[in-house]
Specification:
Blueprint lengths: L8 E2 L1 H7 L2 E5 L3 H11 L3 E6 L5 H29 L4 H10 L12
Length: about 110
């Protein structure tokens, strides 16, 4: 009679401590609705993604986008240095300008 959901999370240690994780769930919607109150204790953004496995696939897409952003940042910081720009100054602009990536800046 046991059932299950795949419910990977995003938000890191800080999100876990604060209870503000993003939770992506796959499985039966009936089971999702049963456990939703418990998930709300851990996360602030909880999404039902459809059938079993969709939670994990959503997490994979999220991680790939994060990794692409980190790779782009690293590549472009190298270009900035080669152009003679100061990395510290570029970092300040990136973290306050339109290019600000949540994944690279400290969370508040």
């Amino acid at each position: 009679g046991a059932t299950w959901l795949d419910c990977p999370v995003s938000g890191g240690e800080e999100g876990a401590i604060k209870g503000t994780l993003t939770i992506m769930c796959g499985g039966s919607q009936e089971n999702f609705e049963k456990v939703r109150p418990y998930l709300e204790l851990m996360g602030s953004d909880i999404y039902y993604m459809g059938v079993s496995g969709n939670g994990q696939m959503t997490k994979m897409i999220n991680n790939c986008i994060y990794d692409i952003n980190v790779a782009a940042f690293c590549e472009l910081m190298t270009v900035a240095v080669k152009l003679g720009l100061e990395p510290e100054q570029i970092g300040k602009v990136i973290n306050t300008g339109t290019a600000q990536p949540n994944s690279l800046s400290p969370r508040s």
